[in-house]
Amino acid sequence: xxxxxxxxxxxxxxxxxxxxxxxxxxxxxxxxxxxxxxxxxxxxxxxxxxxxxxxxxxxxxxxxxxxxxxxxxxxxxxxxxxxxxxxxxxxxxxxxxxxxxxxxxxxxxxxxxxxxxxxxxxxxxxxxxxxxxxxxxxxxxxxxxxxxxxxxxxxxxxxxxxxxxxxxxxxxxxxxxxxxxxxxxxxxxxxxxxxxxxxxxxxxxxxxxxxxxxxxxxxxxxxxxxxxxxxxxxxxxxxxxxxxxxxxxxxxxxxxxxxxxxxxxxxxxxxxxxxxxxxxxxxxxxxxxxxxxxxxxxxxxxxxxxxxxxxxxxxxxxxxxxxxxxxxxxxxxxxxxxxxxxxxxxxxxxxxxxxxxxxxxxxxxxxxxxxxxxxxxxxxxxxxxxxxxxxxxxxxxxxxxxxxxxxxxxxxxxx
Length: 415
Prior knowledge:
Blueprint: E1 3-5, E2 14-16, E3 31-33, H1 37-45, E4 50-53, H2 81-123, H3 128-146, E5 151-157, H4 165-184, H5 188-200, H6 210-213, H7 220-227, H8 229-236, H9 245-253, H10 274-289, H11 300-310, H12 317-327, E6 335-338, E7 343-349, E8 358-361, E9 373-375, E10 383-387, H13 394-400, E11 407-413
């Protein structure tokens, strides 16, 4: 980018301070559009005489060059612009630290949930009542966390392993189903039934050989074996005492399609229990984002688009629309281009404020463990477009999403 004298700057000129390093200036971002004279005064107080600027991203032309015989204006040190902005940046750094700690806490909670889910699956056949008690506790915690709250916040979880396994898929489908259930306004009892059914929906897959589960091009007999996981699932939960019918129906019907083309009973339309219709959408979304072969993974926005545009006949149209509204145009895990020319990944969204998510910024000068988190509600920054990971350099993708998987943690919030 070309350089320009600080004396020619005015609001609307887009500048870059990347050469200084993020810790060596008081601004939130390395690249940004000047919005007020205070920012320009801070540059002067730092002793900076020239900065890089981007004509294409500027909304105003620089001031004309000052004539050689015109003296430079005397600096106005009374404004204390630099000191004030440094204080503001320290406060922002503290907020980023708190946000990072919050994300780490949620990742620990997610790992604890995964351990608990794994124990449910392992103990189901030998100790069904213990498994049922553990599953009810796991679901109950999440439902209580969501009910009675004004809104919910959806967090992307950076779990340590690329391999998700049954427990991680079950947790995702449970969380996604309950998100949609909250948007739909389900009762507490319905939410508990939905969460338990979603957690156990694929329990029968433990009876299916991994080579069949992972094979995207199954033969006829292999497909029949795969589809038998629904029946195996119903058999697996038979030892759970007084398991509610709606829970059993989620397990039995999560592969039924609204147009009658699903399995095992080719149910159609309203004949498919509503909770099973919810879980079916969540299950499909997670399978698109987290297939066995991660090279086939869809970006979140692309997964939503595929369900909404090309697979809508399979699902309850009203529920699909609510699901899209719940996750929004930039679901967690979405790579985005920003108005300052940067690239980031959405790590947290609030359905009440979908256009202003929390974004992790890609900056090769900052270690990934210290990556900048920007809440777009607080920054003069906006998302310009969702990006396909395939369109980005590999190092950018690995910086923002080193595991390749998308896992979710959801909790309630007071807005």
